[in-house]
Amino acid sequence: MRLYSGTSQQFVQDTIQNQIAEKLRIAFFNYFRFYPSPAEVNSWRNSLRALTMVFQSANLIDHGILLEYQLPLTSKRLDCMICGRDNSHKDNAIIIELKQWDKCEMAAGENEVLTWVGGAKREVLHPSVQVGQYQMYLQDTHTAFNVEGVLLNACTYLHNYNYYSEDIIFSNKFVDALKKYPLFTADDTQRLERYLSERLERGEGTEVLTKVEQSKYKPSKKLMDHVGKIIKGDSDYILLDEQLIVYDKVLSCAKGGFHDKQKTVIVVKGGPGTGKSVIAMNLMADLLLKGYNTHYATGSKAFTETLRKIIGIRGSVQFKYFNSYGDAEENVIDVLIADESHRIRETSNSRFTPNDKRTNLPQVEELLKVSKVAVFLIDDKQSVRPNEIGSSEYLKEYAKKYNCKIFEYELEAQFRCKGSEMFVNWINNTLGVSKTANIIWDKNEEFEFKMFDNPEELEKAIREKVKEGNTGRVTAGFCWEWSHPHPDGTLKEDVVIGDYKRPWDARYDAKKLAEGIPKASHWAHDPRGIDQIGCVYTAQGFEFDYVGVIFGKDLFYNPQQGKWEGRTEYSADRMVKYSKEQFLDLVKNTYRVLFSRGMKGCYVYFMDEETKNFFKSRIEN
After folding, report:
1. For 571, which of 16, 301, 345, 554 could close a Cys bridge (C-beta 3.0–4.6 Å)?
2. 195-225, pLDDT tens digit by residue?
3. What is the CATH number of the domain that holds 256?
């Protein structure tokens, strides 16, 4: 998708005649079915007028132009791409990222600066880092640049910014990015003209533009090798027993699915710690190394963003969300690995989806449509929100509807909780999630389950384990409001129990964070996450050596009735709170997830005394 495509000569005329912003506005409406904000239209008008002057001065009049070009399988749009040929007749395209900034400040992040955007100061990517990501993405996923041989470069033009050599934007930490993806300021237009002219001297840009527009999304073999080798370098991903059986089955289906018109669905069920994600990572690595276009998708922002951070910027394009495939072509992905499939939702619509882009197509159908082989890794008892409707039966129902070959496996061996399948079974039984044979917990088990009389002692114990070289986090039931940060970026202490006061991890939509506070999506992986309390949404999918759990008052055991009861008045999770008859099961699943995050130990503080006594009654000695 692009909002404007044409020749550079036409683009210049449209700008001179003050038509370019209106053409973009109408094209925006025709695609999204709502109008862009006046601020965005103004931005187009001002930035494109400045760019037109550069094109005119450099005599770039025989070139192809794309404006607001959407990167395949993302919601990101390039500001401008200009196409042409150099003096050696080689096809070239240059991405130009346009900014209206006039100043910026230092930010704590490795790749960020602080500037005024959208009515407030925000941490944003340095322009050269941002445009560099766009270049890498297209080179790795677009056949024009990885098959057809179009050379791609990228730069930024800050047309309101005056050059100052000591400016933060030119600081040492951005030297590499600036060298690869140069940044041009308002008083540096001649250098920008030379940069463009050297690569586009011959013009003849309409042919190159056609090649770009007619090309398709397809990851390069270099990208797949890159991601595969990174994953294979992690020694933690070792397969055992039934995990290897599932792995072999997916590999054989991938070979067959390459030529088979009938789709294949593989449903892999397993509780916490049975190695579902280990299978997923091994499959990702080996399928990519074998040349299969393989995607890994989840419904978890925290889990997906952490994987992207570990894999690196370049490899992150193979790690998506369940709602990433609404506009994708059928069968464009050889193998789709859908981890945590219990988090699949009814549709991919959100509050940000324009009315005419809303669809009644179930999200699971989008996943089936886009893939030749779909692998669904699922725990039927890990849904923690009412709109998470994925289940093994639900997946098989839609697989049958699509006439897919269906294979089903169940993982049983426990690789978390020190291999103690007994602990997970005991938690399931004690919480009333499912009946198991493990009614009583033996304190002599190698896995350490320990109860504390106050949250201070609980956190102290977790911190001591971390000092010893273990990983550890404190988590809690969603019983307190999750506030926005203070204006200075520090976090409000929302979790209050007597004198104990701690902040939740940062909200996903936090505009600014003080130094030393990780983003919510990195809370589980960043060592500084120990200073905040995590909820189920940031902890689910992760594991730590030791997990601390603050068991809130939203779930309690009623000894008079001999049953678990939910208390909605103690819940701050609005979606769960108003789920009515689902509330009790969802809160049970929440604590089941939190209890099972530890590999060596689980430490708990119970806010309700009766609940604590019930757990005590289920422990031997």
Report:
1. 554
2. 999 999 999 999 999 999 988 877 776 766 7
3. 3.40.50.300
Query: Strand 619-620 relative to strand 472-476: parallel, antiparallel, unpaired?
Result: unpaired
- Rounded to 5 degrees, φ, ψ at 431 are -80, -5
- pLDDT digit string, tens, across residues 110-123: 888 888 887 778 88
CA-CA-CA-CA torsion sign (569, 575, 576, 578)? positive
Q: Among 86, 100, 89, 90, which residue's Cα sits nearest to residue 195?
A: 86
- CA–CA dist 621, 604 (Å, integer): 18
Question: Is the Cα dihedral 116, 119, 121, 123 positive or negative?
Answer: negative
Domain span including residue 478 = 417-620
CA distance 505 to 431: 26
2-7/64-70 β-pairing: antiparallel
465-524 pLDDT tens trace: 999 999 999 999 999 999 999 988 999 999 999 999 999 999 888 878 888 899 888 898
Alpha helix segments (H runs only) across 444-582: 455-467, 536-539, 574-577
Give the pLDDT confidence score for residue 280 in this predicted structure: 85
Chain mean position to CA 56: 41
Q: CB–CB of 451/604 below 8 Å?
A: yes
Q: Domain check: are 174 and 258 in the same one?
A: no
Region of poorest pLDDT, from 14-28, 234-248, 446-460, 499-513: 234-248
Are residue 614 and residue 585 in the same domain, yes or no? yes
* Same-domain check for residues 614 and 568: yes
Phi then psi for 99, rounded to 5 degrees?
-130, 145
CA-nearest of 484, 512, 516, 513 to 122 is 512
User: CA-to-CA distance for 280 and 231, rounded, in angstroms?
Assistant: 11
Q: Is the pLDDT of residue 416 over 50?
A: no
C-beta of residue 478 within 8 angstroms of C-beta of residue 554: yes
**pLDDT for the residue numbered 318:** 87
Q: In terms of domains, do 514 and 584 share one? A: yes
Q: Tokens standing for 98?
A: 């346009």
| CB neighbour list of residue 138: distance below 8 Å, 6 or more residues apart | 71, 95, 144, 145, 152
For a pLDDT cut of 90, what percent of the chain falls above it?
A: 53
452 and 582 in a single domain? The answer is yes
- In this structure, are 184 and 123 located in the same domain? yes
Q: How many domains does the chain have?
A: 3
Same domain membership, residue 503 and residue 582: yes
Among 351, 378, 411, identify where a domain stops: 411
* Separation of alpha carbons 446 and 442, rounded Å: 9
- The alpha carbon of residue 303 and the mean position of all alpha carbons in its chain are separated, in whole angstroms, by 7
pLDDT at 338: 94
Provide the total of helices (H) and of strands (E) in the chain, helices listed first.
20, 26
Q: Which residues have CB under 8 Å from 106's CB, separation 6+?
A: 113, 114, 168, 171
Last residue within a domain, chosen from 214, 243, 261: 214
Same domain, 436 and 378: no
